[in-house]
Amino acid sequence: MSRSPLHWALIVALVAGLVTVIPAQPAGSAAVCARAEADGMQFKRKRGLRYGRLTWPGRRGTTYRVFRNGVVVGQTRRRSMPVRVKAGRRYAFSVKVVRTSGVVANCVGNLRQRVVWYPPARTRKPVVRKTGELNVRIRWRRARRGDGRLAGYRIFRNGRVQRQVRGRAARVRLASGATYRMQVAAVDTRGKVGAPSAAVVVQIGHQPPGTPGAVTVGGATDTEVALGWAPAPRGSAPIAGYRIYRDGAVVRQVTGHSATVGNLAPATGYTFTVAAVDTRGYLGPTAPAVQLKTALPPPSDGRIHAFLLASTGASFAALQRSYRRIGMLYPTYFNCRFNTSTITGKDDPLVTGWAKLRGIPVMPRFNCQHRDTLHHILTNPTAREASIAGVLSLVRQHGYDGINLDFESGSEHDRDALTAYVRILGGRLRKEGKKLSLEVSAKWDGFSTSRNRFYDYAGLAPHADHVFVMNWGYHWSSSTPGSPDDLPYVKRAADYAASMPFKRRFVIGSPLYGMDWPAGGGPANRATALHHSEVMALMARYGARPRLDPTAYSWHFKYTDERGVGHDVWFNDRTTVAARMQVAKDRGLGFGVWRLGQEDPGVWDVPLAAPTGWPRP
Length: 617
Hints:
Number of domains: 4
Structural class: alpha+beta
CATH superfamily of the largest domain: Glycosidases
Strand order of the largest sheet: 23-24-26-27-28-29-30-36
CATH architecture of the largest domain: Alpha-Beta Barrel
Number of helices: 10
Strand content: 25-35%
Low-confidence stretches: 1-31
Shape: elongated
CATH class of the largest domain: Alpha Beta
Number of strands: 36
Largest sheet: 8 strands, parallel, barrel
């Protein structure tokens, strides 16, 4: 039977696998194989083609029928066939034997496979040329396309995408002072990226900023200075700011061309300079420096005597805040050694120097509160002379304005010996232009205790420049709760001091601390001394509301702690301390406090704390 040319063309296309023909199948024949995959069955496709070649194991001369996703795509006597596919899709390929009778028989095998989508080919190594200090031009050859159309090229800098372009060249701006690895990769319309090209290494140099203009001083106080300078020329990168150097060390960095530098010591010389720094962190040369000396701080014009506990920073901080109210400072530096004339302790140069620079006389406290030791120092001529010599040596060595004697707990039988010690020491200090102050326990006619009988007010006053009356202790740590300085007792002690000769040398002392007695107080329930801030914290914690006792003229409140123990708290604030100040001022006496750092800060703001009307220490 003769066949037309069209018929032969269809047969050739079938064999080539490019035209799908589904022949009639005998009843019962399966469209896909049920058995496992056969070894050696493969499907391969080259980049960019719309078909691939399926191969399988078998015998020559056998007829095979090929299925794609259960549909016949062709029949051949070979052991391979081209099969049309679409990249990126998953297919199930099957091959069966066709007997001479036309019946589809044994399954040769099946294969499930995703047809890979080929991205564009690798771009050849690009060429890079510098076109400016920070600019380069990069170009490359066209990459062979993969399964999709080319959309453009991605430019990589040190492994990260910098940008994407449609053409085959681009200008890229790089930062200075760095080394870069430049690569290019083609990308198709589906976002598939080809392998990056070989890297081209590019090194970019860096020019740091120039030198700012010379530093000038706009003004200086005792603690800060205003500086200015002309801008520096920029280098490779914009200027981020200017670093300020004080005596060669960086203080801070600013963005403008002026700054105020604080936290300086008064009457101290400094050297300042600046240098520009750019956004890449490169530092330029420093400007011509300026040297200056800060001013002296405002001197104190205060009149209040104040003790400072040198072992706590809070006490020094209180002095720094309120020094303009302080006229005499008693830092707690020195102590006596048990049953000897030796003086222990040391100067704190920070406290001493800070106060002297502000015109506050410094008279360190020499503390001795042991009866036997005091008896030894006061009654043994050799020990007394050694003790006095030791005090004078300390005053000379550190340039103190004098010394403060805190001799407590002495025997009343050593009363005259104490007066003699004060007379000798006071005379020697005055010969050197120095002063002497000492503490005494409060007393008045009819009020005599083992502590206050140690002091002869009338005998001590002619030889001491200041007699500090410790006008507190009317309730103490092991007593029942109450105000440490009941106002009626304060007035009696002040009246007695005012009746003495040299009354202007007497100073009425006031406590700044509070007291917290648990369980009714007494020797078994000793009180705890509290700073004003600690008193306020207790009130807030337990929701206590203080009451002003009209007789003692001190504040008082109660609370119950977490263990169920009741507490009584007595304390003073700016109002009640001001009342004690008024007592002293009305009698022409000085006023002093124990101690800085425990007080209500508002104490220093009351009008009575101002120097007007008070005698100068």
